[in-house]
Design a protein that fits this description.
By secondary structure, the chain is mainly β. It is built from one helix and ten strands. A six-stranded antiparallel β-sheet has the order 1-10-9-4-3-2, with no helix packed on it. Strands 5-6-7-8 form a four-stranded antiparallel β-sheet, with no helix packed on it.
């Protein structure tokens, strides 16, 4: 095993960490073993979720309320009978997944943000913007959601 020539500088741990921090601060992405691939979109969602997602029976979503599909990071509401709305379940404040739909509001457990079931609008902060809306249809009694 040969050693590096004395004239080649060694990269210190501090230099490496500072460089990585600079890349991340500039908006770059890094692939870390065991942390997924870098082929996903900027939202971190897999490209596999870009097509229609079958969420099961529409009857699982109560009228005037909604249901969080945690694994798919989608929340579906039914503000009025037969009218379904779908949104990203990732809070626009810190990216936490909303945990419930209660009292006509989609609720985030992390910092208390609340969103309207009808349009995803912020009703109580600190979320800075509405939940992104998705296209939802009912086919054969099942909910089909296409993330935007």
């Amino acid at each position: 095993m040969s050693e590096a020539p004395e004239s080649s500088p060694a990269t210190s741990r501090r230099t490496l960490l500072c460089g990585a921090a600079a890349v991340l601060a500039a908006g770059g992405t890094m692939a870390v073993a065991g942390c997924g691939s870098t082929t996903s979109g900027s939202s971190g969602e897999s490209s596999a979720t870009k097509g229609p997602v079958d969420l099961g029976p529409a009857s699982a979503v109560p009228e005037g309320g909604g249901k969080v599909f945690r694994e798919q990071k989608i929340v579906v509401t039914q503000p009025t009978a037969g009218q379904y709305k779908a949104f990203s379940a990732k809070c626009t404040h810190a990216g936490c997944v909303v945990d419930q739909v209660k009292d006509q509001q989609i609720q985030c457990p992390c910092h208390g943000s609340r969103f309207a079931v009808a349009d995803g609008a912020v009703q109580d902060g600190p979320a800075p913007s509405p939940l992104p809306a998705y296209t939802v249809t009912v086919e054969g009694g099942n909910l089909k959601v296409t993330p935007s």
